[in-house]
Amino acid sequence: MARRALKLASLAAAASGIYLYGHKFLDPNDFGVVRVGRAIATTAVITYDYLTSLRSVPYGSEEYDFLKSQVHLRSAERLRELCCANRGTFIKVGQHLGALDYLLPEEYTRTLKVLHNQAPQSTRQEIEQVIREDLGKEIKELFVSFEDTPLGAASLAQVHKAVLQDGRTVAVKIQHPKVQAQSSKDILLMEVLLLVVKQIFPDFEFMWLVEEAKKNLPLELDFLNEGRNAEKVAHMLKNFDFLKVPRIYWELSTRRVLLMEFMEGGQVNDRAYMERNGINVNEISRNLGKLYSEMIFVNGFVHCDPHPGNVLVKKCPASGKAHIILLDHGLYQVLSESFRMDYCHLWQALIKADMKRVQKYSRRLGAGDLYPLFACMLTARSWESVNRGIDRSPVSASEDVEIRSNAAAYLPQITQLLNNVPRQMLLLLKTNDLLRGIESALHTRASASSFLNMSRCCIRAVSTYQRSKSHSLYRRAQISLAEALSLWQINLYELFLWLKGSQLGNWVIALLSRMHHSMY
């Protein structure tokens, strides 16, 4: 009798499981043992591949480099499959790795980039559940219309277009319901696995990735924090009339639901969209550089996720001006004053090709004897270009290939550097690489104007800091005069570059040349 009851109970449990799974109420990914087992298995396979595939091949040979590239590619694909299967935090970390174009082997970044387009989507039932739990009402009570298909889905949340009862069109950002519960366990799992891998490969230094995830994920999962960041950056950069940040509707926002003003446009890396809509590509690139120079060097409050889906462009029908729309304000880096000043001085030295100061400020930022590599990582230029001056010549295709190849060749040194530099530097490096990716897509990379804007911001930031530390009125006046002269020199040089590249400039040069020849 007991055996029969047990058999019936087992059959009932199995049938219930099949029914729940078939109707999407039950997901194997919800079980910790499935997620942990999948992560352990993937890590073991990748580790075994690296240990065995390169063991009998002479280091540094062509065969070694070819096989290493193949192992990188296989491992990146396995990692991508793991991220897609475990979703949530795994996709977030995978996206972070995919953004490090000039810091990781190309096989990894190219393979993991697709994770920006492969984020999971929550079902209508899950969305209704989150809204019901957080706002205490049903979707139909809050909205006249609510589009089922999300405008975009990311690793932690998805966004839907909706219309409120009063007629306002809004964007509703809703957190995936299971992410909050799974995130801390996923990070712990990653930490354990990375520690195990480090025991096998002592040069493997990726603990910085886990430390960053530990610090940043709780902030990104708090949508009220995101709303506060959006309002802060909008106020901070209010002098830039080309910048638009969606307004937050606080009365219908919680830690898991964020209601914003609806804004739309083309992605910032979509050159074809800009050309179709009469948007000046060079102007967009310049303005994006101005925004980030102001955030990094002057304010020390930096939007650290400028991938193309978070930066839109749109031409205003009324004024004809092109606007940059900045979305997703969950991840910001706050820079300390001392770090910001050292970073300003370092970039000034890099632009002027002042190698002594490059070494000095790179060391102050934790690079040690690896300061040449650090300079190359920051600028995504070869050491030869850094010595010559990064504003003297644009990046060539061969130099770009060289930089990407070096990312694989110097991986142990790069990971060592990432462990040594201040934590504030990590998100800046990721931000730099995302911005370079946008510039590459627009074919505007390494323009002289971007370095001039950086120089202006560095001069203003350093002068403001020096004035704040000076108690002498005469000294403050000296600092202000030196600042004005430096900015005037930059303006003059910018005018020279404009004349040099314009028809008027060519006409003046031709006239002067003709006058010179007629005199002799």
Structure notes:
- The protein is of the alpha+beta class and 520 residues long.
- The chain has 22 helices and 11 strands.
- The strands form 3 sheets. Strands 1, 2, 3, 4 and 6 form a 5-stranded antiparallel sheet that branches. Strands 5-10-9-7 form a 4-stranded mixed sheet, with helices on one face. Strands 8-11 form a two-stranded antiparallel ribbon.
- A hairpin with a 4-residue loop joins strand 3 and strand 4.
- The longest helix is centred in the C-terminal third of the chain and has 29 residues, at 473-501.
Properties at a glance:
AarF domain-containing protein kinase 1, four-stranded mixed beta sheet, five-stranded antiparallel beta sheet, Kinase-like_dom_sf, 520 residues, Prot_kinase_dom, alpha+beta, disordered N terminus, protein kinase activity, globular, 9% strand
The gist of it:
This protein is an alpha+beta fold and 520 residues long. The protein is built from 22 helices and eleven strands.
- By secondary-structure content and strand pairing, the structural class works out as alpha+beta
N-to-C CA distance: 120 Å
The total of beta strands comes to 11
Tell me about the largest β-sheet: 5 strands, antiparallel
**If you average the pLDDT, what whole number results?**
84
Uncertain segments of ≥5 residues (pLDDT<50)?
A: 1-26
Envelope shape: globular
> How much helical structure, as a percent, in the residues?
55-70%
Approximate strand percentage: 5-15%
Tally of separate helices: 22
Radius of gyration from CA coordinates:
26 Å
Family: Belongs to the protein kinase superfamily. ADCK protein kinase family.
Organism: Buteo japonicus
Protein name: AarF domain-containing protein kinase 1
GO molecular function: ATP binding; protein kinase activity
